[in-house]
Design brief:
- The chain is mainly α.
- It contains twelve helices and two strands; from the N terminus they run αββααααααααααα.
- The radius of gyration is 23 Å and the shape is flat.
- The termini are far apart.
Amino acid sequence: MASGGRANESRLSVWLTDKPRRKADGQTGEGTLDLERIVTTTVRMLDTDGMAKFSMRRLAAELGVTAMSVYWYVDTKDGLLELAVDHVSGELDLPDLSDGTADWRDQLRDLAVQYRRVLVAHPWMPRLLGQYLNVGPRALAFSEATLTVMRRSGVPPHAMTGAISALFQFVYGFAAVEGMYKERCREQGLTEDEYYRRVVEAFARRTDTTEPYEEVTEIVEKRTTQHEGSTAGMWEQDFSFALDTVIAGIEVMRDRSRGATQS
């Protein structure tokens, strides 16, 4: 029986227990199985069907094995989902931290763009990032890269976590909303542009239009014309402007902190 301390660690995160995770191939009697195959299949199923339809039983059926065979490699569904989150974190491209001439703003912007790309590509990620500790090796490599870049910005140590939170909580929220919009479109059986066009048309048909609605309608029409009805272009424009705003804000707060220290 596990000690109280180890049991608590296991509940905190699969990464905070010293129990080894089996990586070698194992013969289950139903075919060759290994942890990598289990995790990659889990990611693919989550991408295709979402969290609501995922289960260990369906995973086992997809792998062509029994559920007990899967549990030989992972103790719980929660542990498997943590492994899936870190696996996806490996898709994040890290900047060249050895390049001393690199602009910290460009590197920080690239990290944010990478983070959004991964969260949108895997719309189940935002939910799981809010549910589990993201402390796997790939996630920690991304965190360390972010810290290294942020140190180059000159942000004082006491403000470091706040600056990082401002950046990545913005990206997290933006990507989560973007992912939910894409999911809503899929549920309606429409492309993103088709869904957006229907919303705009329904909004324009309102008979109780007041001044605030007129102003919003005018803004929407200008955006639609500017991007030729492409929602992808709208997402990109909004994200780019907001990201530049956050990075500029970090720089302003850094300078304000320096001024306060000097005075």
